[in-house]
Each structure stands twice: as C-alpha cells, then as structure tokens.
C-alpha cells in the first residue's frame, strides 16, 4: 500500500536534506519514465508537451543561429504532428550550413544545460523559469501558426508555477525530465541526420539539414550526420558526467 503521507513529506523536503544517492535515483526515475511511458497506453500523450518542446528547440535553434549569423528570423511553426518549420533569410551560402547545424544541435545543447543546471536546487527553478519565459517570448516574437501559438503558450504558462511554487524535489525531477526529453528529441533526430531529403507538412520534398550542410561544404550528408551525432553524444555524455558523476568524485 502506498504511504501517501510519507510521499507528501518527502516531496516537501528540500534538496539539501536529501542524500546524493536519492537525487541520483530521482534522475534515473526520470530516465525510466521517459523509457516506459511511450510503451504504455496514453504514455505518449503524457510526454507530448515535452516532445513538443523538442521540436520547438530544434526550430528555434535554426532561427536564433540565423540571427547570430547576421540574418533574419522571420517565423516559426510547430504542428500537431510534431513537425516544425523555421523561416530565415539573409545568411549567405556558408550561413545556411551553420543555420542547419544550429537546429540539429539545439535540443542536445538545451538538454545538456537542463541536466546540469536542473540537478541543483539553487538553479533548477531558474532554468525552468528561463525556459518558460523563452517559450512565451518566442510565441510573441516568432511563432506564426495557430496550433503552435496555443500549444506553446499553454506550455510556457504551465511551467511558471512549477518553477516558483513546486517543492524543490519536484522542480529537480521536472527539470531532469525536460532535459532527458530534449536529449530524446536529439536522439530521435538521428534518422533525420542521415536522411538526404524529406517531405514537409505540405507535401513538398526538400533537403534535410545535413544535405543543406553538404550542399555548402561538399562532403556527403551522411558525413555531416555522423559529425553532428558525435557532437550531440559528447554534449549529452558530458552533461551527465558533470551533473551526476563528478560530484561523487567519479
């Protein structure tokens, strides 16, 4: 029988009162949840908002990279089926390759930051609040389709009370779960990294991001897919080490 009173008391404990082993088990609970939920009825529905954030991070990565490269970020779309589009211009030939790589790497970079900063009780609320503010700001500035506007707006609003009102244990768990889901989004794009062309939501056949890089830098798309995949794996492995292994003296 579940000890609901004991569970409630545990949730109210501060992270400082918990052992390092308990926090590590919390991380692995988030990993287990990420692996199990997609395989049970309605599990994918529970994880849907996190998958939506993964698509959002990919497309926002394209757009912000375009801005950093001196171009413009016109608009962003996220669709119900988790497809997304980012429209940018003015980046030049080399800039197009950089923008393509920015979208592929964005989920791994954001996921790594969440795993590292979300493992600490002093920074977890700030990364959650930062994500909420960034999502809401992107809705106002860049998102231009109705579904994306509504879904991302509700997601950003839902994150705010979690960031500032939830118990510390819950904040850390949610931050780790979000980080892991961004990592899942990165891993989920591995097939796409090794794809030459794909069909957009409107049925248009277009170059993949790695083929876009290959068009500029000459080496084949599968080579750039391997490079991007290797960088993503290094980011994710490094973030796990920094967050959970190094503090134990490993």
Structure commentary:
- With about 250 residues, this protein is mostly helical.
- It contains ten helices and four strands, in the order αααββαααααββαα.
- α2 crosses α7 and α3 packs across α7.
- The longest helix has 26 residues.
- The radius of gyration is 19 Å and the shape is globular.
- The N terminus is likely disordered.
Lateral strand order in the biggest sheet: 1-2
The secondary-structure element order is: HHHEEHHHHHEEHH
Question: What average pLDDT do the residues reach?
Answer: 84
What radius of gyration results from the CA coordinates? 19 Å
C-alpha termini separation: 37 Å
Give the helix tally. Answer: 10
- What percentage of the residues does DSSP assign to strands (E)? 5-15%
Shape: globular
Q: Which stretches are poorly predicted, pLDDT < 50 over at least 5 residues?
A: 1-12
Task: Give a count of the beta strands, DSSP E runs of length 2 or more.
Answer: 4
Task: Provide key terms for this protein.
250 residues, mainly alpha, two-stranded antiparallel ribbon, two-stranded antiparallel sheet, 10 helices, disordered N terminus
Provide the fold topology.
Blueprint: H1 4-12, H2 20-36, H3 43-68, E1 72-78, E2 84-89, H4 92-117, H5 124-141, H6 146-165, H7 168-188, H8 190-193, E3 197-199, E4 205-207, H9 209-217, H10 221-245
Helix pairs in contact: 2-7, 3-4, 3-7, 4-7, 4-9, 4-10, 5-6, 5-7, 9-10
Quick description:
With 250 residues, the protein is mainly alpha-helical. Helix content is 70%, strand content 8%.
